[in-house]
Amino acid sequence: MDDQNGAPVKDSPGEHSPDGHSRGGRPAQEVTVKEGGPARLAIIGGTGVYDPGFLEGAETRIVPTPYGEVEILFGRRGPREVCFLARHGRGHTVPPHRINYRGNIWALRKAGVRWIIASSAVGSLNPQMKPGELVLVDQFLDFTKSRDATFHDGAGGVVHVDFTEPYCPALREHLGAAAASLDLTAHPAGTYVCTEGPRFETPAEIAFFRGAGGDLVGMTGVPEVVLAREAELCYASVALVTNFAAGISPTILTHREVVEVMQANLEQIRALIGRAVDTLPPAGNCRCGSAAGEKGIFNASLGVDGGSGQDH
Ligand code: HPA
Predict the structure, then answer these.
(1) Stated pTM of the model
(2) What distance in angstroms lies between residue 38's CA and the mean position of ligand 1's atoms?
(3) Which H or E run includes 44?
């Protein structure tokens, strides 16, 4: 991809067809590629978060990528350039298994983004993590089935990226401090189980996930976090518990309930992200920006681990 200052990546049409985030007939625009100056921060809004609520001078642009076009809102918060991407589209039209995860992360990286704060609605498997509370996710269990989950599709060799720290520990800690300064309850860690969706889970699945160490369940965290790490971005997930999961909750689950709880808690999510943006420390206190240097590339012709090669 590009360098950390957002120099352009090469967009080749490739084999990929656009999906999700259609541009509705408007022409694609090149984004303002950043050259020097502070990097951008991106907010990915999940269910119930379709506008960060605090962007100044916001302007929608359509960013072309090898995976299709992606709609992003560009603006500022004070001196910081911030952009916003609605994961399910602005009208919540794209289901979890149809989201253009690769296009989204590619477009953000191309726009010079260094940090991503992603919001999501989750069910809770953990009695300590209650509806209305925030969790700063630190691990995931991947139970998705049909998604394009990597930028390393084989063209440059077989690539394996380290995932010991899937979420940026520095950004997560920063969000924890921002939450504390606002007197918000934010659990500092939690294991997120990602299901394929779009259906909700059975009680048997939830019991299995709990036994496996899961705290939260949702449908969109993977492969978003995976692709962000492959793109060497700092990625943090702010999960809002909207319900206890199937079989734990005494009632059946509806999407309406999820959206209503999300909406009731929108202000705390906006306040947390706003405070985190305002107080963002300089990048560098983590290893996310060199994740590609920790990957192993297996080149069949050489039969060796090639180390730091780039395949896109
Ligand atoms: N399961 C899956 N996704 C969710 C849930 C849930 O219980 N709540 C909010 N998103």
Answers:
(1) 0.86
(2) 36
(3) strand 40-45
Containing H/E element for 135?
strand 134-136
Closest CA to 43 of 21, 73, 4: 73
* DSSP string of 4-32, one letter each residue: TT-PPPP---TTPPP-SS--TTPPP----
Contact of 115 with 42, CB cutoff 8 Å:
yes
Neighbours of 252 (CB within 10 A): 8
Q: Residue 136: left (phi > 0), alpha (psi -120 to 50), or beta?
A: beta
Atom of ligand 1 nearest to the CA of 243: 8
Q: What is the per-residue pLDDT across 224-255, written as a single tens digit (0 to 9) for each?
A: 999 999 999 999 999 999 999 999 999 999 99
Q: Tell me the CA end-to-end span of the chain in Å, nearest whole number.
A: 5
Residues 6+ apart with CB under 8 A from 35: 5, 6, 7
Atom number, ligand 1, closest to the C-alpha of residue 253: 7
Domains of the chain: 2-293 (3.40.50.1580)
User: Each residue of 72-119: pLDDT tens digit?
Assistant: 999 999 999 999 999 999 888 999 999 999 999 999 999 999 999 999
Write phi, then psi, for 268 (nearest 5 degrees).
-70, -35
Is the pLDDT reported for residue 25 higher than 70? no
Give the distance (Å) from ligand 1 centre to CA of residue 118: 16
